[in-house]
């Protein structure tokens, strides 16, 4: 299992992680005819948080408080958002609920990733875009 603070964007990767779902979009984005619906969620482990994209039946299957195990996930851009998702080869499954230590910062989706000066085929963390999720701002 990888900690969320250690994930790096890539077109092909196999992220195995475990996290708690903190918040989820109430109304999924409208889809074009024939497309599966998708919705965004905020998830976290004890090291960081990230935006997690749910597809199709996943939108209804997961709720805030669920502990989720992701197998063979992908952390990459999708519609200009940097998101973690199961993708075609991955799998997200509920393994528990409510009890997990988590950290909401840093949010790995709110970091500007730049090419590594020593290896242009890899990305490294650049500037922090926002200290919290702009998609799921803190509630006061």
Sequence-ordered SSE layout with sheet pairings:
Blueprint: E1 15-24, E2 38-44, E3 49-55, H1 58-61, E4 66-78, E5 81-85, E6 91-97, E7 111-116, E8 119-128
Parallel strand pairs: 3-5
Antiparallel strand pairs: 1-2, 1-4, 2-3, 4-5, 4-6, 7-8
Q: Could you describe the 3D structure shown?
A:
The chain is mainly beta. The protein has a domain at 4-25 and 37-104: Beta Barrel (OB fold (Dihydrolipoamide Acetyltransferase, E2P)). The protein has one helix and eight strands; from the N terminus they run βββαβββββ. The protein has one helix at residues 58-61; strands at 15-24, 38-44, 49-55, 66-78, 81-85, 91-97, 111-116, 119-128. The strands form two sheets. A five-stranded mixed beta barrel has the order 1-2-3-5-4. β4 (66-78) and β5 form a beta hairpin. The mean pLDDT is 84.
């Amino acid at each position: 299992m990888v900690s969320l603070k250690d994930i790096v964007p890539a077109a092909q990767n196999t992220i195995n992680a475990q996290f708690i779902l903190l918040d989820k979009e109430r109304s999924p984005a409208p889809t074009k005819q024939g497309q599966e619906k998708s919705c965004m969620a905020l998830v976290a482990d004890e090291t960081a948080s990230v935006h997690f994209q749910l597809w199709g039946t996943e939108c209804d299957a997961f709720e805030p408080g669920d502990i989720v195990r992701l197998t063979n996930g992908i952390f990459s851009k999708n519609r200009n958002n940097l998101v973690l998702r199961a993708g075609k080869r991955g799998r997200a499954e509920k393994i528990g609920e409510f009890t997990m230590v988590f950290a909401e910062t840093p949010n790995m989706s709110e970091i500007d990733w730049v090419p590594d000066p020593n290896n242009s085929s890899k990305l490294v963390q650049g500037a922090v875009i926002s200290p919290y999720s702009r998609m799921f701002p803190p509630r006061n």
